[in-house]
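Hi V.,

You were right to ask for the full record rather than a summary. Here it is.
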Amino acid sequence: MTGAALTLTSTAFADGGSIPKRYTCEGQDVSPPLAWSGVPSGTRGLALIVDDPDAPDPKAPKRTYVHWVLYDIPPSAASLPEGGALPAGTRQGRNDWGRTGYGGPCPPIGRHRYFHKLYALDTVLGDLGEPRKDALEKAMKGHVLAESRIVGTYEKGQAVHA
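Predicted structure:
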């Protein structure tokens, strides 16, 4: 691999910063804008997983809660706009609300971390139905060329307004 490393960013929040209320269950619950660069040559598709390893309580986490699962994002795409208008060909998996699409932060207690993870894959995964995170990760195994992440935090009633 040559060139820049795969980098994921958002104009809505800095890595390690607070996710604005707009992108949560206390706001409009729309997905934040995401952009990336440095997609390696040989990439045939991208995948995005957004999850929270601090559920239900960051002081006593019991599970990782999945908020968004996307795959087969075309490598020619360089971003996802606010609200998640998806590039043609992008497929969605199921989040832990049991539906496709984005589900914003809605932590029951404390400040949670939300990992937005982008993967460059050397293959198009094709129709996996509506896979959950674990099924997508299994399908991606051995195909990840590069990955990047950005982490945002959120606590109910403590949000930055945007």
